[in-house]
Every structure is written in structure tokens, then in C-alpha cells.
Amino acid sequence: MFGLVEEQLRLSWEELSNLPQSEVFADMHCVVHWSRFDNHWEGLLATELMKRVKLRPEARHVMVHGENNHTANLPISDFLRPTTIFALRHNGALLTAEHGYPLRLVVPNLYAYKSVKWVRGIEFLDRESPGLWEFNGYHIYGDPFKEQRSSS
Ligand SMILES: Nc1nc2c(c(=O)[nH]1)N[C@H]1C(S)=C(S)[C@@H](COP(=O)(O)O)O[C@H]1N2
Ligand SMILES: [Mo]
Which residue of 23, 61, 78, 133 has the smallest Cβ count within 10 Å? Predict the structure, then answer.
């Protein structure tokens, strides 16, 4: 956790797995027209993690950083939804490498390109700034129920 925070927070996988765990049941919608329904995610709610971070008042947006410079942006209001979860487990087992082990973010109310796998860090920003997919033409917000797939 870095950027517009009073103090940076670094947590190891061990520490994350010892914090209070929650579960979220959610469908996942990819922009290229597939959905995977009824996923069971277990891990740390973003709200739980945010109890340990003090944001600067200017913080408005979040940049999620994954492995291989993968990034996605979202408003803090979506990041703080009670269904946003840093998942360690999917459908009863540890995440597989392909699906994001050791840690992935899951943001059920937005398209799956926001659900960054192999998460490394969360950066807080004072403005909206496009992540990798958004920069390459995916919608800056990405509401699957409004079919906000692309920015054009
Ligand atoms: N780090 C990283 N996270 C990522 C992606 C990626 O390429 N790299 N692809 C996104 C997209 S477009 C989708 S649809 C989902 C797919 O998740 P899955 O592999 O668990 O099905 O992961 C998202 N998270
Ligand atoms: Mo996707």
C-alpha cells in the first residue's frame, strides 16, 4: 500500500493469511464475452486491509499493480465496496498459479480486467489514471451491467 497514504504498509503472504479472512461469492465477467459464475473467493476484504492504512485526504483513485507491470485503475469507492477482496483461495483451494497465486484482487462489480492477478501493490492517487488495459482501450470504469467494454 503506497502513494497517498500517511505510512506505507507492507505485508507478507504469511501476514495476510493470518489477518481476519472473509468470503465473497461472485460471478466474473470478462470483456471478451465469457463469464464464470458462482466463484467462491476467500481472503482479505479491502475494507479489512484499509483498517491498517491511513489515507491522505487527497486520495481518490486506486492503481492496482500486478506481476509483469500489469495495472488496473478504479475509484476508491469501488475498491472499498464490501465485496472487493484480496483472494488467497478460490472454490475451496489455494489459488492456482494461472489464476493469480499467491494473491489476486477480485472486484466483482467491475469487468474482470480490474481483478488483477499476482497482486504486488496498491497505489493511492488523487486522480484517475489509466492502467494497462484501460490505456490499451478498455473502458476506464468497466461496469459489466452497462457493458462498458471499451473506451471508444
Ligand atoms: N496480472 C494480471 N491480472 C489479470 C490479467 C492479466 O493479464 N494479468 N487479465 C485480466 C482479465 S482480462 C481477466 S478476464 C481475468 C481472468 O481471470 P482468470 O485467469 O482467473 O480467469 O484476469 C484479469 N487479471
Ligand atoms: Mo478479460
Answer: 23
Atom of ligand 1 nearest to the CA of 133: 12
Ligand 2 ion: Cβ-proximal residues, 5 Å cutoff = 30-31, 112-113
Domain for residue 151, yes or no?
A: no
Per residue in 14-61, pLDDT (tens digit) is: 999 999 999 999 999 999 989 999 999 999 999 999 999 999 999 999
> What is the residue range of 98's domain?
2-146
- CATH code for position 97: 3.90.420.10
Neighbour-count burial of 43, counting CB atoms closer than 10 A to its CB (0-12 exposed, 13-18 middle, 19+ buried): buried
Read off the pTM: 0.97
Q: CB neighbours (10 Å) of residue 55?
A: 15
Nearest residue by C-alpha to atom 18 in ligand 1: 99
Does residue 6 lie within any of the structural domains?
yes
- 115 inside domain: yes
Q: Is the CB of 30 under 6 A from ligand 1?
A: yes
Cα separation of 87 and 146, whole Å? 25
